[in-house]
Amino acid sequence: MLQVEAIDKSFGDFMAVDGANLTVDKGELVAVIGPNGAGKTTLFNLITGQLKPDRGKVIFMDEDITNLPPYQICKKGVARSFQIVNIFPRLSVFRNVQVAVISQQRKSNTLFHPAQGIAVEETSRILESLGLIGKARNTAGSLSHGDQRILEIAIALGNDPKLLVLDEPTAGMSPEETGATMNLIKQLAETRGLTILFCEHDMDVVFGIARNIMVMHQGRTIIQGKPEQVRENEEVLRAYLGVE
Amino acid sequence: MAIFIVLLVLPPIIPRFYTYILTLMFVMGLLAMSLNMVLGHGMIFQFHHGVFYGVGAYTVALMLTKTSLPVWLGFAAAPIAAAVVGLLIGWFCVRLTRLYFGMLQIALGSLLYVIVFRWYDFTGGDDGIYGIPMPSILSSSKNSYYFILIIVAISLMLIYLILKSPFGTTLEAIRDNPQRCEAVGVNVRRHQLGAIVIATFFAGIAGVLFVVLEKFVHPDLLFWVLSLEIFIMCLLGGWFTFTGPLLGAAIMMALRTFVGIYTEYWTLILGVILILLIFFLPEGVMGYFLAKFQPRAKEVTERGYE
Question: pTM (2 decimals)?
Answer without folding.
Answer: 0.87
